[in-house]
Write a structure and sequence with these properties.
By secondary structure, the chain is of the alpha+beta class. The protein has 7 helices and 18 strands. The chain has 2 domains: 237 residues, Probable tRNA modification gtpase trme, domain 1 (Gyrase A, domain 2); 69 residues, Elongation Factor Tu (Ef-tu), domain 3 (Beta Barrel). Helix content is 20%, strand content 31%. The chain starts with 14 loop residues before the first helix and ends in a 10-residue tail after the last strand.
């Protein structure tokens, strides 16, 4: 039986005010652009292990890992959070990529015993963040997961998310999420999804959207730095190119945080250029901040701090992500 998404779209304040609240206070956001795919079957673990950049077949129930899915040329088609369940796996990814990803994965199933179920019509996701988020959710749902893990609480699945303040993704049926949303409403501020995206940007978490598919080898978007790459797991599409970039040390691009002023958010994939007009990078994602826009962009490393850069007509301020850019893998 399917349910319709019924969580309210009510938000409080302007985009800048919501951004400030997300960075400093307790918020809840309906993440309607996020979708879930269930993968089950006797061969599910081995199949996904052979498709993704990260190890999958050694995951324990309730464990969560990042992983990329690449073309044979090593360019990312998707970046996912992979959750191991008691019956298989759940893949969290942008809803706009689901149809294409499922079509491509099914091409390689052949005789493997694996099934894919698009859960967009029966599973929804919200995000909760803030200094009191853990206490509020524990009072509502019970014991919460630690980083890299999830916990099942009735009809809901809670995943610990990366951030400077406690952050959690909560997935479940719309009716179950509606109950939690109502319980949280008195204590947290409802914000638009773009404010949650700002928290991802501040955390330096890359994403792949329709406008950036096949744009980046995983290391360019720092996937190796957030634990989404294994260099010992064996073959997967694009593995040779990804491994060569790692072992030969010829990585020339990395992902950085960006700040800029603009009337509207530029689209992912927008070119970043130097003062003399040379293309030196590409926008990954952007969202309104408390003062102007913030984003993530993949840049030629030698240009990241040495030249004036522009995103369209906007001047860019470039900052490092909140983790070291030196890979120790």
């Amino acid at each position: 039986m399917t349910e319709t998404w019924t969580l309210p779209d009510t938000t409080v304040g302007s985009a800048a005010e919501q951004a400030a609240r997300a960075l400093e206070g307790d918020i809840v956001a309906a993440l309607k652009s996020l979708a879930v795919i269930a993968v089950e079957g006797a061969d599910a673990a081995d199949f996904l292990h052979g498709q993704f950049t990260n190890a999958v077949n050694d995951m324990q129930p309730d464990e969560v890992r990042y992983a990329a899915y690449c073309t044979p040329k090593g360019r990312m088609l998707a970046l996912l959070q992979v959750l191991r369940t008691d019956t298989g796996f759940e893949l969290f990814l942008p809803a706009e990529l689901v149809d294409g990803l499922l079509q491509r994965l099914r091409l390689f199933v052949l005789r493997a015993k694996v099934t894919f179920t698009d859960l967009r019509s029966e599973r929804a996701v919200i995000g909760v963040s803030g200094p009191r988020a853990a206490d509020l959710l524990q009072a509502e749902l019970g014991e919460l997961p630690k980083s890299g893990t999830s916990a099942r609480q009735g009809e809901l699945r809670v995943i610990a998310a990366v951030g400077s303040a406690p952050r959690y993704l909560i997935a479940g049926t719309p009716s179950a999420l509606q109950t939690s949303w109502t319980a949280l409403a008195a204590d947290v501020t409802p914000v638009a999804e773009r404010a949650w995206r700002l928290l991802d940007i501040r955390a330096g978490l890359p994403c792949v959207l329709a406008g950036t598919q096949e744009s980046f080898v995983p290391q360019m978007a720092n996937v190796d730095l957030i634990g989404g790459l294994s260099f010992t797991k064996g073959c997967y599409p694009g593995q040779e190119i990804v491994a060569r970039m790692h072992y030969l040390g010829n990585l020339k691009r990395r992902m950085y945080r960006l700040r800029f002023d603009a009337d509207d958010a530029p689209t992912p994939g927008t070119e970043i250029r130097s003062a003399d007009g040379k293309r030196v990078g590409e926008l990954v994602v952007a969202a309104p901040g408390p003062d102007g826009y913030e984003g993530l962009g993949v840049l030629i490393i030698e240009h990241a701090q040495t030249q004036e850069l522009k995103l369209g007509d906007a001047d860019l301020t470039v900052e490092p992500p909140p983790y070291s850019l030196a890979s120790d893998s």
